[in-house]
Amino acid sequence: MLNEASVRGASADTPKPEESGEGKEKVSSDTGPVMRAGIKLIETAFRSNARIGSDDTDIFDPSNFRQVKNSWWLDRLLPSGVKSYFLTTYVVCTSVWLIGLGLRLTALGWQNVPHEIWEFVKDRQWQMQPLLLLVHFICLRLFKGIYSRNFDRAFKHLDVRKTELTDYKQWFLGHRVNFMALALAAPFIVWEVIEFATKPDFYETIFGATSPYLQKIDVTARNGEAGFLLVLWIFEWLMYGYYCYLMISGAFVVRSILKRHRFTDSVDLVLTERQYRPLFNVTAQAGSLVFFFGLFHAAYMFYTKSTWTDAAGLILLVILLGLAFSMTWSAVRGELKGQVFGALEELEKSYRMAREKLGTMRDVPGIEDDIQRIQVQLKMQLALQQLDYLQTKYESLGRKEFLGLVFKMLAPVGSVLARVIRWGSLLAAIGLGGAAAITGGADKQPPQPPVVKQAPANPGNTGP
Fold first, then answer.
1. Taking the model in full, what pTM does it have?
2. Same domain? 150 vs 247
3. Which of 319, 310, 322 has its CA nearest to residue 188?
4. I need a labelling partner for 276 at 20 to 30 A (CA). Which of 16, 56, 103, 435 fits?
């Protein structure tokens, strides 16, 4: 399916014409690659500050909540504006809670309504379901936002045309997203339906074995409230399938584009300026979002004591995130591998030729011979440094991006802990100040130090 976009898009693989050598100083064949490597390093040092920019954006940026043209049916039904979107989701989540309350009162025959409403409010399942649905709605727009808005930005350093990126984007967010989301969510949906239809302790699992609601209904049959919960779970699993589709298909798109296109700059600049970093930014932001979703989902599982399907879904989401990062990492390394090895081979050849030339030079007194010998030695040293530099940069490719992914995932916890420590320190200081004030008021006079007896000025000799 990925070939559809590449066939429709115009290819940008035509090589750039080589610059003519007229008017330029020729570099000798034995030291040319080394000199070009040195020039690239100097260019990088002077223009790195101007070229390197931060592509990181806050995942909760309001722009990520705005609607982007896509074929996902649920997103197209929701408003495009940020305020209207949150207002709609609030209305939907509140309506879900009210519908559940109405179905329970109907099942109980509308008897003792105030008491049953209070029992419904205390029900853990219905305490968490509206909040979990709201988290799903937030992640729905954020997942789509970070993938669609960062799509063009991720490939800005590659020789791929805008028209081809547009075709890839249409493939990525086209009508197949609806079928793929359903396919990825189908195993969980089927299992939920099977448990709903056949599980004997279905009500005990959902509402708890000690719930007074179980004493008032027939636990062998499925009432309207249970059916409504099943519909709600299916709806949430469909959104879950959408998250999985975006992560895994996004990694396949990156892999496909990197197989057909190359970085516009030389491998020196690509590794020095980390021009591959935008390719990892989307996965890193998705990691933050997965961690945010995982915290709420884990709280839901712990509080409601839900079934293993929720835990399996959360584990699968983390596995797909790691798979997406690994696919991007291997694709970038595979793209740069040939260029790096080619540059290393060229540098090794230049180093050997310079060393052979140094060995053939005679030790003749004279400043010109000394200058030439020093030049060859400097070029050899530069070649060795460039060899070590390229190897180190290539081997460390993706390491900082992986650490950034971990740190971004832990950033929400870090900010919460920082606030807890700050407020805890403030409360402790207030408590200690209050205790000191109370103690000072109780003791009017501070305690005096003990009196030290002084020895006599002329003690004299005393006998035993």
1. 0.68
2. yes
3. 310
4. 16
